[in-house]
Amino acid sequence: MTDSSFHEVIGQAKDHVWMSHAQFRDRDDPTTLGVAMRGEGCYVIDHEGRRYLDATGGSHCCLIGHGRREMAEAVYHQMLDLEFSGSGLVPFTNVPTAKLSKKLAELTPGDLSRVFYTLSGSEAIEAALKMVRQYHAQGGSPKKYKVLYRNYSHHGYTWGAMSVSGDPAIRSPIFEPAAPMGVVVPEGNPYRCLYCVETCNLGCARAIEATIEYEDPASIAAILVEPVPKGAVTAPREYWDMVRELCAKHDILLIADEVVTAFGRTGTWFGGDHWDLEPDLMVLGKTLGSGYQPIGAVVATNQVFERFLGGPERTLIQSHTLSSHPVVSRAALTNLEIIERENLVQRSADMAPYFRSQLETLRERSVVGEVRAIGMLAEVELVKGPGSKEPLGGKEAGRAMTRFMVDNGLYMRCSGEKLSIHPSLTITEEEIREMVDIFDRTLSFAEREILAI
Ligand SMILES: Cc1ncc(COP(=O)(O)O)c(C=O)c1O
After folding, report:
1. If you write DSSP's letter for every residue of 224-249 in order, what string do you get?
2. Overall pTM surpassing 0.90 (yes/no)
């Protein structure tokens, strides 16, 4: 790309793209925004041919690496065959969607076997919220409308998903009151536990039980969980056993949000496999299409689906014009074929010890409070110094560290409080070393320039 076309694109973007998470008012400073031109394996390549190692795995989406010709060809051929088929109004389905649904029924645990499609994770959360409401209403319990969600959880920015998310980045006083259904309960977070004194006493799980009793079990429709949250926080197995028991006891549906963790991210097919979770509804998104096409889905058990059978008035009241899209389904199917053919779930489990051991070396930096990793999902909590659990810094510090990482060849961001690391499952040992080396230099930069240690 020539210099003048680079400046033209940056100008167009800065003047007209409403980007998320950023303002980009400084139109004349070309260093603040790059132009991504190509993807290749674990690298993103910019307009000057500069390569950035992608530590985010395409914002959690891309399990199979960037720039796969096979994906492009699958999508191309599908578009030539059939680029659209509706989602049910006219009674047609299409081949890729039918095949993908069978595949998902085979891969997902327990009795999960019926797939509803959307185009993003948030929309799939919205659909799941409506499913649980309608499920209980049609089972004679219309007063079951509340959804338990966990603090710090992230389920998306749409109104319903926001209303059942605990992540402070999503919740803002501007949007309160949110939809009146969400009730917050604790996640199990050993590093920042509010309940344990020295050893785990499962206080977090007992707090869920207490909340159910307080709110009235007859009003609780579902509990929405990320079996392994994005921050690689893992609750003890007993926490999950209690959640399961509470669901069974009070007729509460278990919704597992596997938008980030499905298809190998944590070294198993699904995050919930670590605790043998068999949810009533599983929400899929990012990893289902590896980011090559926009797709989300809710997979329901037969038992849930049967509640929607009978007269036409029992049909699920939810639809998207572009759901069950043949091109999108074809991309997801090809993505799953690649994951199976290249044994990427096993690769994730096999590479995990090396990934973790390399990240553990960062503990030598005074600003590292905790290193957590499960499979190829990791988080490094950044603090003000040894023994402190106070976050290293806020958005400003995050921006400075992001800039440093990008300038040093990493496709990565930092909030100021943590590094969330989740490269494609195809990453090599050499690439992991390159990535950790840049993290190390970034933390040294933070010690020097942000904390002035
Ligand atoms: C766990 C989880 N669920 C749901 C979502 C929402 O997905 P999307 O951004 O595709 O709407 C996200 C997005 O980051 C997520 O991390």
Report:
1. EE-SS-TT-----HHHHHHHHHHHHH
2. yes
